[in-house]
Amino acid sequence: MKKLFFALFTSVSFISVAQEKLSTTTGHIKFFSSTAAENIEANNYKVVSAITPEGGKIVFSVPMQSFEFEKSLMQKHFNSDKFLDTKQFPTAKFKGSIQNIEQLNLSKNGSYDAVVLGDLTLHGITKPIKQTLKLKVENGKITGYSNFDIALADYNIVLPSGKPTEHVAKTVNVTVDLNFNSTLTASK
Amino acid sequence: MKKKILIAFGLIALSVIGYVAYLWFMPHRDIQATKADAEITASVLVDEFLTDAAAANAKYLDAEGESKVLIISGEVTKIDTDQLGQKVLLLKNSPSDKLGVSCTFTAETNSQVSGVKIGDQIKIKGVIRSGAEYDEDLDLIINAVVEKSSVVN
């Protein structure tokens, strides 16, 4: 089995205007698994995320049943209790903070590497992770991009031996792609 | 006798191939063609999740992701577009409600809501993906997520 590479490329552009919160409800997360048998890819376009520039708090909420696969059967297996058990654990969450928030000048156009440290809760298991989120500020628009690997076993996502294990890698590559809105424009 | 064995093998082989093809090419669920499991207002659905999330998950979500198809009515309080160009409408029964139901349309059904405005009353049919939640810990408003939406008249 090949290792999956996570390369989350996160480009996030911040509009630093006072202490405005940045948020999105249409974030995109893709995960990719590569093995000798086959490649599997799933996309989710319903990711909720928010960043509070003051203090650098960053959070994510991901509805697991919004991950879509090309193959219907794969999507069913993904959701089943043998894999991600999405009926029991319908939402994955991340809560953390940008460690170097003070070094990021989000009011200025540019690309910034935010160091994100926090807890990821997936399949009911919480583990600390530390990753880079590339924030990109471009004329008032802020986008975020990140790419990293997740080891399935870390979250008790264990496959029964046999066919599925040949087809799903032990680590998956996750890409996060966000378009933030500032709260001045977002309505509730 | 030999011929019969060959025919039998042939049939078995065809069945196996047919079954594998069925699995491989299994079509995705067509939500528009699926009859709704229930009709509900946005606020009632939100309240069910806020009152008892575990019970609501058990009621509305399916183990394999083929969750309940719902007809949801409410007022349009926000209009958005996701990264795929799909329209997203946020439905609440009152604009002052904290949480609502976020309904994503599809490339095929987008045109049904091209003229929709904030304040419009609407009824949509879609499949539920996750419930509404206010996560105090994260200070995050999480609206219920409904996808594959279309307008119901």
Strand segment tally of chain B: 8
Oligomer: heterodimer
Please state roughly what percent of the residues of chain A sit in beta strands, choosing from under 5%, 5-15%, 15-25%, 25-35%, 35-45% or over 45%.
over 45%
List low-pLDDT spans of chain A: 5-17, 184-188
- CATH architecture descriptor name of chain B: Beta Barrel
CATH-derived architecture of chain A: Beta Barrel
Structural description of this entry:
The complex is a heterodimer of chains A (188) and B (153). By secondary structure, chain A is mainly β. Chain A has one domain (22-182): Lipocalin (Beta Barrel), CATH 2.40.128.110. Chain A has two helices and nine strands. Chain A has helices at 72-79, 163-167, and strands spanning 22-34, 39-52, 57-63, 68-69, 91-98, 110-122, 125-138, 141-151, 171-182. Chain A has an eight-stranded antiparallel β-barrel. Chain A is elongated, with a radius of gyration of 17 Å. Chain B is an alpha+beta fold. Chain B has a single domain, classed as Nucleic acid-binding proteins (OB fold (Dihydrolipoamide Acetyltransferase, E2P), Beta Barrel). Chain B contains three helices and eight strands. In chain B, helix 2 crosses helix 3 (53-60). Chain B starts with a helix and ends with a strand. The interface between A and B is large, with 36 and 43 residues.
In brief, what are we looking at here?
The complex is a heterodimer of chains A (188) and B (153). Chain A has 188 residues and is mainly beta.
Features:
heterodimer, A: 188 residues, Lipocalin, 8-stranded antiparallel beta barrel, 7% helix, elongated, B: alpha+beta, OB fold (Dihydrolipoamide Acetyltransferase, E2P), 5-stranded mixed beta barrel, 33% strand
